[in-house]
Amino acid sequence: MISIGQLSKRTGVKIPTIRYYEQMGLIDAPERSVGNQRRYTKEGLSRLSFIRHSRELGFPLEDIRELLELSQHPEKPCGDAHGIANRHLNDVRDRIAKLTRLEGELKRIADCDSDNVAACAVIETLADHKLCETEH
């Protein structure tokens, strides 16, 4: 059994976040010591590591909840897990495309060669969205 502080150090997840995951039902409420301290098992450590890695990959909490549920049924086919991962991949690709458009627009307005703010492309474009060349 390990304390919440040890769990935090071993997983890199901050203590308030661990408590939040407990409240959200992503990790089970731990046993308590005689002094009322939380005591986590190796399973709790593994589950929190799973959550942390999933968050690092950008999965939303609801997808993580579904993946955790699937992980409790190793006999099931992994098609549902693939579906969740592919849905997230499509979301990431959409965000990358949007960021690429945003990058192009920012690059365009940052290349302003004006000497004063009165004719500055950055200021003018931020004041009037119609001056943007792309939808971002």
Describe the structure.
- The protein is built from six helices and two strands; from the N terminus they run ααββαααα.
- It has a two-stranded antiparallel sheet with strand order 1-2.
- The model has no long low-confidence stretch (mean pLDDT 93).
- It has two domains: 4-60, Multidrug-efflux Transporter Regulator, Chain: A, Domain 2 (Orthogonal Bundle); 80-131.
- The chain is mainly α.
Question: In whole angstroms, how far apart are the ends?
Answer: 50 Å
Q: Residue share in helices?
A: 55-70%
Averaged pLDDT: 93
Would you identify the regions where 5 or more consecutive residues have pLDDT less than 50? Answer: none
List the secondary-structure elements in sequence, H or E: HHEEHHHH
Q: According to CATH, what is the class of the largest domain? A: Mainly Alpha
- Examine the secondary-structure arrangement and name the CATH architecture of the largest domain: Orthogonal Bundle
Global outline? elongated
Q: What is the total number of structural domains?
A: 2
Q: Give me the CATH fold name of the largest domain.
A: Multidrug-efflux Transporter Regulator, Chain: A, Domain 2
Radius of gyration: 23 Å
Number of helices: 6
Structural class: mainly alpha
Q: What is the spatial order of strands in the main beta sheet?
A: 1-2
**Number of distinct beta strands:** 2
Largest sheet: 2 strands, antiparallel
Strand fraction equals under 5%
